[in-house]
């Protein structure tokens, strides 16, 4: 027989509510588990064969060993290459590769958003 309250079955009992609260607290305190995909990417990226010979953008031009330097815009996919010796001749040996790459891309990105903060190229430095 149904009770007088038609929605009585929708509400958990006091015992069910306590059990759900305990389970919620246990899940909140449990360490996060790693998925198989995260473990796979960690193993791939920790492999020494995954290391790239890219010069660090913070290094100065005189410390870089690569003869050809490449910077690419991640928005418009424009690629600019320069010989390291030409870059040293134009900008000096003490300037960082990041500053030179930004100067090479300074004439503007072809993708415009209309907001000054977002306009411009997003450099990706490669050797």
Descriptors for this entry?
single chain, 127 residues, alpha+beta, three-stranded antiparallel sheet, 4 helices, 12% strand, elongated
Described by strand count, sense and barrel closure, the largest sheet is:
3 strands, antiparallel
Strand fraction: 5-15%
Spatial ordering of strands, largest sheet: 2-1-3
How are helices and strands ordered from N to C?
HHEEHHE
Would you tell me the structural class of the helices and strands?
alpha+beta
Question: How would you describe this protein?
Answer:
With 127 residues, the chain is of the alpha+beta class. It is built from 4 helices and 3 strands; from the N terminus they run ααββααβ. It has helices at residues 14-29, 36-46, 84-91, 97-104, and strands at residues 68-73, 79-83, 123-126. It is elongated. 9% of the residues are buried.
Describe the secondary structure blueprint for this structure.
Blueprint: H1 14-29, H2 36-46, E1 68-73, E2 79-83, H3 84-91, H4 97-104, E3 123-126
Antiparallel strand pairs: 1-2, 1-3
TL;DR of this structure?
The chain has 127 residues and is α+β, with helices and mostly antiparallel strands.
């Amino acid at each position: 027989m149904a009770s007088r309250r038609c929605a009585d079955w929708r509400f958990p009992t006091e015992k069910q509510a306590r059990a759900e609260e305990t389970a919620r607290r246990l899940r909140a305190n449990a360490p996060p588990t790693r998925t198989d995909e995260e473990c796979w990417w960690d193993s791939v990226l920790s492999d020494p064969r995954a290391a790239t010979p890219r010069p660090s953008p913070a290094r100065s031009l005189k410390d870089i060993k690569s003869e050809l330097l490449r910077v690419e815009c991640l928005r418009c996919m424009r690629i600019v290459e320069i010989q390291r010796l030409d870059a040293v001749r134009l900008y000096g040996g003490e300037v960082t590769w990041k500053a030179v790459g930004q100067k090479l891309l300074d004439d503007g990105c072809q993708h415009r958003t209309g907001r000054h903060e977002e306009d411009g190229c997003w450099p990706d430095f490669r050797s």
